[in-house]
Amino acid sequence: MRVIDCIVSDHNLWFVLLAAITCAVGSAVTTRLWRQARAATGRSRYDWCFLSGVVAGSSIWATHFIAMLGYLTPATVTFDAVTTLASIAVAILGSGLGFLITLLSPRLTVRIAGGATVGLSIAAMHYIGMFAYRVDGIVSWDPLYLWLSLAAAAGISVLAVLALDKRDTIFRGHLPAMLLMTSIVLLHFLGMTAFGVTPLSGVSSGVDSEAFSAMAIAVALVALLIVGTGVSSFLIDDRARVSSESALHHMASHDALTGMANRLHFHVTLAERCAALDLRQPEFAVLAIDLDRFKQVNDSHGHHVGDEVLRRVAHRLETALDGAGLVGRLGGDEFAAIVDDAALAEAVAGRVVEILSRPFLVNGMIVDIGASVGIAVGPRDATDPRDLLRNADVALYAAKEAGRATFRMFEGAMVEEMQARIALEQDLRRAVAREDFTLFFQPQVDSRTGAFTGAEALLRWDHATRGMVSPAIFIPLAEQLGLIGRIGKWVLTTACREAATWDPHLSIAVNLSPMQLADPRLPRTVSQVLAETGLPAERLELEITETALLANDEQALSTLSELRRMGVVISLDDFGTGYSSLSYLHRFPIDRIKIDRSFISGVATDQHSATIVRAIAHLGTNLGLKITAEGIEDGDQRDFSALYGCDNLQGYLFSRPLPAEKLPPAFAGRTTAPEAA
Amino acid sequence: MPLHRLLYTSEARLSDNASGADLMVESIVAHSQANNEKRGLTGALLYVRGTFIQALEGPLDALENTFERICHDFRHARLTLVDMSPASERMFERWSMTYLAQNDEPARLLVNRDLEELYFTVSTNAAEAMRQMRGLLLGEGKKPALEVV
Ligand SMILES: Cc1cc2nc3c(=O)[nH]c(=O)nc-3n(C[C@H](O)[C@H](O)[C@H](O)COP(=O)(O)O)c2cc1C
């Protein structure tokens, strides 16, 4: 055990301790930097290797130097400056190179070569340093320890390299640093054991111990400075990495446009919330929030404005939630919220609906949207995140069905209603595709002569299992589904084709839905149909409702004027039921008004209805309009209507709606009036 | 920045007890005056039959920002924007935000009647309503300071 003997008896132990501390700190920092180098890519990998080399090299050098200062020699000692400096350069470049080699390839041989290079650099530093150590005496080397030191340094350094890739639990990742330190220390003291000095007699022995200590401290300080630099560069990078990692995390979990939680984050939070349900947490609610009319904002104002509105919607949602939970954007104009306490769900939903009903002012433009909200409560309505969201969506659907700008709580029955509606939608789509509709025609008569003047076309949908579906149900649905254009075109074509086979004095009345009237292509469609079927425009009467005029009156005015110019007759249906603003009669090119059946049914019994019918007929006549009375069921109603100026009559008294084939015989059978009273 | 003016109505959602409600209105008006002064906004706030009627005018940016903040406020609800358009000059230049409400004092019968009339004009004719507001406030000799009536 000459090594221990060498350490204990040939060295000042304080210096040994100082050297050991320097070596330990240096090794620890070196391995951190080395790991950093391994994690880095591209150019910065070389920088990190260099930095590792600087720290490793200077630690090795400082360890050596301090230990040498503590070496008790009987002879006078000096250091050769140039060689000493050369030794530190070798340590830095050699170990840096070694670290680099270990990272070049994951192959074992390459990593061993790298480790060996590090170990041999330590040795090279040591022995070059020993050349710089000039003693006044006879120096001898023991080859056994010399080789032993080389083998130990290289071998243990290789182990350090291999340990770098191992997950060690025992030393908590410090194993490589410990091995590196062992390698340095072992090399030094094996090397010193191999080294022997016999003093020349007559020369004063020893060194100036004060000067020596000062030097030792200076060296240690420089070494620590270097190591400290390494530590701080590591910390700077680490902090930068942490902040860029948290920035990345933020990006991954937040919506770029609004800065609120994104779909992923929302789902993770919801899943956590559902998982915690087992822990007897209070009930919580999921809100599905959908913007009404948002698509139009993008369409009419552009994405710029649309994006700004979404940002503000996000902000308003945060205000509406007011800390009651998490709100996120699931995509597009779809938002959702988790309300931590289900008892607050309806209040929050109400606030959401309220705050989004308020207008947005963007660049001087007014943007009106609105929101519908569906609520599902966990665990009452579901315990699984997917089911909860689905139920909230079902409730959202119900809220939209209820006219939007409102909220609904999930109820089991909603699922069936929704399914029923979806089934109806599918049936309607199929019916439209197959043109599975039929037209019935209800004849109209001249109130003076009793002669037939034409008929109104009435749309029927006779479904195989549903039976007769009312237009009041399927027309609004067709409008929502964007099918009304196709249905309308079919009705128009079929009705005109039929009418073209009738006697030339008979006209055909066809109803237009508000949405058809709002379509600027309508006049072109009508003229195409007329050309196709050969029906003269004068024999076509288009019936519109007041609602259609209300919705979009500029558009309606120009469309109607164009139709009028083509010669088509325009009539205002259901007159008296809606707003019945007389200004319509004045503003729009209307030829005829049809008094609603609800007034006609009361003329004989109800003073009020009679007055209204008289007033409308009187007014219409004075404005030069033709008047039709609908729903005539008996002689009294016929006589009353005829007396007060309704020129056309329609109702069961004359004929029920008939299928197309029954119409010509009906027209032929009775072209003269039943006896007027 | 071009000048714009807006007019809206909303239903007040104030505290149920009268003094609490007064305090809320006082706070709204005080904040509005301070904020509007800074941002170059002027206007008037009326309170009739539980309804706020507010006219607000100024540079477009400031106007839109403040309106957005007002839209975050749950001290009122069912907000209806009656008008929002460019304006060539201010109508309420004297007031950062003046406030006028109905009350029971017999001496104020006329003001009460005018406010009542305004309540109906607002929904049919925004421009006329704002002219009436201005006339009423000028007649009241309203100073630019807060004056809770
Ligand atoms: C009816 C009503 C009118 C308001 N008018 C204004 C206004 O003109 N200017 C304003 O800054 N805030 C107004 N507010 C208050 C805002 O909604 C919001 O509370 C306020 O701007 C926040 O001000 P602070 O940042 O000083 O707290 C009004 C609030 C209500 C309910």
From TrEMBL, chain A:
User: Can the keyword Membrane be found in this entry's annotation?
Assistant: yes
Q: Where is the GGDEF domain?
A: 282-412
The MHYT domain sits at 11-198
What InterPro entries does this protein's entry cite? Biofilm_reg_signaling, EAL_dom, EAL_sf, GGDEF_dom, MHYT_dom, Nucleotide_cyclase, Rev_trsase/Diguanyl_cyclase
The answer to whether the entry has keyword Metal-binding is no
Q: Which Pfam families match?
A: EAL, GGDEF, MHYT
Q: Which keywords has UniProt assigned to this entry?
A: Membrane, Transmembrane, Transmembrane helix
Q: Which CDD domains match?
A: EAL, GGDEF
Q: What is this protein called?
A: EAL domain-containing protein
Automatic annotation (TrEMBL), chain B:
List each copy of the BLUF domain by range.
Answer: 3-98
**Stored InterPro entries:** Acylphosphatase-like_dom_sf, BLUF_domain
Gene3D superfamilies, A to Z: 3.30.70.100
Pfam family of the protein (one) = BLUF
Q: What is this protein called?
A: BLUF domain-containing protein
